[in-house]
């Protein structure tokens, strides 16, 4: 039996009842989006309210994209997330300046530019490999070619982009990432999660954790 446990992040959460179900399903991280262009965007006051419903030991991730450093500082001070996630072109120095561990989104819609960001962000605590282009936003619902993730980065990768209950098992078996991240694939409509899809997503990840790896997948 595999001792692997792929971590799960549910992103774009906007409702306390969706967070409560995610927590009861054992989801490891909750993403709150502070990007105005997102259909799942929260203003900071609403995010602070929702953050109170996330229990200790469940990671709260605050997402920003090319935001002013003063706004990021405000997020850190008022929201007190466990991690920041930078989803744009922000340079590593700006990410570090916030003084919190951070995830860097890698835009695999532009693989060459995305993979350069890996080298620029050696200070990141982790990398979210997502489907957007370098000037796009996340939550695309699109899958990218998982073979483009460098073999050496898979074990610590957070895999995102178009995952849903119907394909996340294949994704876990093929890539064996550290974590999977989903937004639109568990929704009834943007910002409103679907309880059954949330349950099915977690069940598919756990099923894949128990399975033998695909040929060629790293252990
Ligand atoms: O989800 C959004 O609306 C979003 C907007 C702007 C920046 C980031 C955003 N999402 C970040 C995430 O971590 C999503 O989980 C990730 O992009 C995957 O989305 P999906 O393909 O819909 O599962």
UniProtKB/TrEMBL annotation:
Leading EC class: isomerase
Membership in a protein family: Belongs to the TrpF family.
Pathway: Amino-acid biosynthesis; L-tryptophan biosynthesis; L-tryptophan from chorismate: step 3/5
Recorded catalytic activity of this chain's protein: N-(5-phospho-beta-D-ribosyl)anthranilate = 1-(2-carboxyphenylamino)-1-deoxy-D-ribulose 5-phosphate
Listed name of the protein: N-(5'-phosphoribosyl)anthranilate isomerase
Ranges for domain N-(5'phosphoribosyl) anthranilate isomerase (PRAI): 9-203
NCBIfam families listed in its UniProt record: PRK01222.1-4
Segments forming a coiled coil: none
Alphabetical UniProt keywords: Amino-acid biosynthesis, Aromatic amino acid biosynthesis, Isomerase, Tryptophan biosynthesis
Catalytic activity, EC: 5.3.1.24
PANTHER family membership: N-(5'-PHOSPHORIBOSYL)ANTHRANILATE ISOMERASE
SUPFAM superfamilies hit by this protein: Ribulose-phoshate binding barrel (SSF51366)
Gene: trpF
GO MF annotation terms: phosphoribosylanthranilate isomerase activity
Organism: Pseudomarimonas salicorniae
Pfam families: PRAI (PF00697)
Statement: the UniProt record of this protein carries the keyword Flavoprotein: no
